[in-house]
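Progress narrative, Year 2. Work on Cyclic lactone autoinducer peptide from Pelotomaculum isophthalicicum JI advanced from sequence curation to structure prediction during this period.
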Amino acid sequence: MKHKLFAFAVTVLLLLASITSASACGIGSYQPEVPESLRR
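Result:
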């Protein structure tokens, strides 16, 4: 019983970690347009 509970907790935590990292990558890849006055 203890092994099943541990496996379930690991599965849930890995799922949560993958969701969090995927959302962080999605936010980090956003690059807004740079205005002409700031371009060199």
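The chain has a mean pLDDT of 87. The longest helix spans residues 2-28.
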